[in-house]
Write a structure and sequence with these properties.
2 copies of one chain form a homodimer. By secondary structure, chain A is mainly alpha-helical. Chain A has 2 domains: 69 residues, Winged helix-like DNA-binding domain superfamily/Winged helix DNA-binding domain (Arc Repressor Mutant, subunit A, Orthogonal Bundle); 137 residues, GntR ligand-binding domain-like (Four Helix Bundle (Hemerythrin (Met), subunit A)), CATH 1.20.120. Chain A is built from 10 helices and 3 strands, in the order αβααββααααααα. In chain A, strand 2 and strand 3 form a beta hairpin. In chain A, helix 2 packs across helix 3, helix 5 runs antiparallel to helix 8 and helix 5 crosses helix 9. Chains A and B meet through helix 3, helix 4, helix 5 and helix 8 of A and helix 3, helix 4, helix 5 and helix 8 of B. Chain A binds a DNA duplex through helix 3.
Chain lengths: 225, 225
DNA sequence: ATTCATTAAGTCATCAGATGACTTTAGGAA
DNA sequence: TTCCTAAAGTCATCTGATGACTTAATGAAT
């Protein structure tokens, strides 16, 4: 259970500090001991403490304020979450990604502006119909379109989650499934923009769901065979 | 587009090193300059270089071999995504979390089993009506109920993302907002279970959405004041 | 008593120099 | 050629010091 036999002082320091936080000995928002004290507690030099703290800061667990101190920002380890999500199956990831896009379209409909709608139409026009000779460009522009739909939701958290799943699933698909998933035609894409432009969240939801359904069906068929 | 004006030497060093890698000036597997040279190149001290390098090592981008050198391990940094999510605003996180739960209930309705429904009813019964004297237990059991709803979706990716958001938002609320968000009554909770049990995805969607709407409204009211 | 500017203490940010541990490679002996 | 040894290169870590920034205490003026 505990490999943890790293001959690496900074890494063990990271683990020790993290342990203090996960066991709630150091609460969220609380200020932790200063560098010199930490160095004494961990039995390492200040330089090593700084390296450990900076890693934890980069992971969002700690937060340093010059002149004030170092504070606990969060107890959850994003790295762990990431790994667990990575281990989930491709199908579930795609399904989640579809769900995210449906909700994004819904929000986009309630918050749409003429400028955003025009930009979406512009992007779809640039992309054009599928042309096998220009496959890479098409895939790239198509992904950009879908990201733009999500961006139109105006929800930054949703945008980031979608971005995460988008790159993640793309990597898996490239790595595992040789065949591409079916891409709905131009009319289906336009329908999404129209639904958003109509301002009707229900319509946007249904349209996007209808758009996504065949993709998941085809994936299930591929995985079954 | 790029704020990036951090007065932080180590962070700018991280960005510079990462830039060398993303632009392929330093290829994967290649050994990068030693610490002293890097210090000269970046115009910082060795200690700062070490802090930057250790962060990149913790992100899997670099790899150090004592006595040998520092090598490029990978160019991708998908890990950033979840960290960026955490830096987004509370409102957007709550909204996304609600969206996730709506989609989860929808999936749960299509895949529900009598056992799962019975378990949900059991959990809700155990939780009972709100009692101020037993606040902590109530909050805990309520959160468990909502996680169980998401778990009933059967989508492991969705479960993991929801878990990430639920702990993340909970921490923010505890840390920032003193007042708790309103929790719908027992009837509203039961309605979600009924909707899932009915097997009607539309009904589950609408019921859960109705459940979530007041929470977001109240949050907006709190943030406005 | 209250307000406000000043001062001092505490803390992180960064630097410089030095030593130890480990890896790699070159050179020499068998 | 093969094997061993020594030297050079590199990361790991420590120590000590200075600057920048924040916070709280101080004290004067109102």
């Amino acid at each position: 259970m505990q490999p943890a036999v790293r001959t690496n002082l900074a890494d063990t320091a990271i683990q020790n500090i993290r342990a203090e936080i996960t066991t709630s000995r150091w609460q969220i928002g609380e200020r932790i001991p200063n560098e010199a004290t930490l160095a004494d507690m961990l039995g390492v030099s200040r330089g090593t403490v700084r390296e450990a703290v900076r890693v934890l800061v980069s992971q969002g667990i700690l937060e340093t304020r010059q002149g004030s101190g170092t504070y606990v920002r969060s107890a959850i380890d994003a790295e762990d979450s990431l790994l667990r999500i990575r281990r989930t199956g491709l199908r579930d990831q795609v399904e989640t990604r579809c769900a995210l896009e449906v909700e994004a379209a819904r929000l986009a409909a309630t918050r749409h502006t003429p400028e955003v709608v025009a930009e979406l139409r512009q992007m779809l026009g640039d992309r054009g119909e599928y042309n096998p000779a220009d496959h890479d460009r098409y895939v790239e522009q198509d992904l950009a379109f879908h990201k733009a739909v999500v961006a139109a939701s105006g929800n930054s958290a949703l945008i980031e989650v979608y971005e995460f799943f988008s790159t993640s699933t793309q990597e898996i698909i490239k790595a595992t499934v040789t065949g591409e998933l079916p891409e709905p035609d131009m009319a289906a894409h336009s329908a999404i923009i129209d639904a958003i432009a109509s301002g009707d969240p229900e319509k946007a939801t249904l349209t996007t769901r209808a758009f996504m359904a065949p993709i998941l069906l085809e994936l299930d068929r591929l995985l079954a065979s």
